[in-house]
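User: Small multidrug resistance family-3 protein. Structure?
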Amino acid sequence: MRSVYWGVAGGIALALYGVIATFQSFPTFGRVYAAYGGVFIILSVLWGWGIDKKSPDTYDWVGAALCLVGVLIMLAPRN
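Assistant: Predicted structure:
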């Protein structure tokens, strides 16, 4: 039962983390936040491979590559 409480507390903390970030006032925060998400996904795949010894399959690599492409597109210079 204790793990249920930890799960609920973690879910609440994660939700608050996402909501609090929306109160940022600078105009490019959305791009930065999305880029952070893309990098987080890539690092999660690498963590699973290196630390947890779970070899990524083709879909993991394709998904991580798509995230990286998205991050690069979002961070491209604009006028």
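The CA atoms of residues 58 and 75 lie 26 Å apart. Residues 2-74 form one domain.
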